[in-house]
Amino acid sequence: MFQNLIKIAAGLGVVACALLPATGASAQGKLKEVLSRGKLVVGTGSTNPPWHFRNEKGELVGFDIEISKIIAQGLFDDPNKIEFVNQASDARIPNIVTGKVDIACQFVTVTAARAQQVAFTVPYYREGVSLMLVAGGPYADFAALKAAGPKVTVSVLQNVFAEKMVRDALPEAKVDQFESVDLMYQALNSGRAQAAATDSSSLRFYMKQNPGRYVDSGYSWNPQTYSCIVKQGDPDWLNFVNVALRESMTGTTFPIYKAAYERWFGETPPEPKIGFPQEFR
Length: 281
Known about the structure:
It is a single chain. With about 280 residues, the chain is of the alpha/beta class. The chain has two domains: about 30-125 and about 225-270, D-Maltodextrin-Binding Protein, domain 2 (3-Layer(aba) Sandwich), CATH 3.40.190; about 130-225, Periplasmic binding protein-like II (D-Maltodextrin-Binding Protein, domain 2). The chain has ten helices and twelve strands. Strands 1, 5, 6, 7, 8, 9, 10, 11 and 12 form a nine-stranded mixed β-sheet that branches. A three-stranded antiparallel β-sheet has the order 2-3-4, with helices on one face. It is elongated, with a radius of gyration of 24 Å.
């Protein structure tokens, strides 16, 4: 009996220890940790315009950088209190899981498989594939491309899914794959291809860089949702980031999101509607 009492007492001691408040960063949560540190540590890339890249001055710029600054603005009322950690795409999830960065904003596509490893924030962009045409070229829009059938050649960046991706939109078109984006656009400019299939964001950015030279066919497909990612198990941190991002798209800080969207995509996002919150429609 005495031995049983000892075991019971020991067991109660373990339970009591488990119920004691934890110490350190894990106890205070990521939100308080970041506020105490005085800066936000963001994982992102540096080679993918218009999302994250270095400009001619060597500064890190792009839409992902602007999104990160929106979060820093919400934390410190200062968008520049950020440390950017340059990382490859395959380091995005590991750097979150290990705590190397507080958040990753690096055009992360939302998938169910990834949601088993990290927590996704609310989306800040929906990517897709679009077709870019030369202004004044033989085909004015997507309807004309589709009607032309096998007469149309589409240039696209080489990958295993390229042909199927193009044929999902233009089943009869010829597909010409290239090893670089520059060669893909070169085929369009030379007339070797009548359309170039590329990410919708890249199309908008390229058109903004070359005003009046190209047009959008007016059709996009293959949607992918972009969100930032944070470590699982910290609802306060996720909630804060979601509030900062959501209000930039629908509320008080919309002018900041709007300016960034116009800067990198050359288009104005729809204004938030007054009255019933549009996100619940």
